[in-house]
Amino acid sequence: MEAYEKGLKIDPENVECKEGLSKVQFAVMYGGGQGNQEERAKKAMADPEIQAILRTPEIINLLKDMEQRPNAPEIAAALRNPDIAKKLEKLVAAGVLKMG
What we know:
mainly alpha
């Protein structure tokens, strides 16, 4: 996903990058059943990068807020932070977090 996003920063109209990003996003959101999702999440939890993200205080607090107060204004503000958004995107792509 990151490679397509980098490509689109260089050439925002690149059709191959747009299509590739769309396919990856679709696969992340709808790829496989619950068993597949659980297996992906299990593998992801062994990934040091995913572990580091999940230990980040701002992510811990955000996930807690998302669970307890899903409509809190602090959540929308946090999601506009590019660093936090990128970390959440990695968690979703890894199958650790479901959004929506």
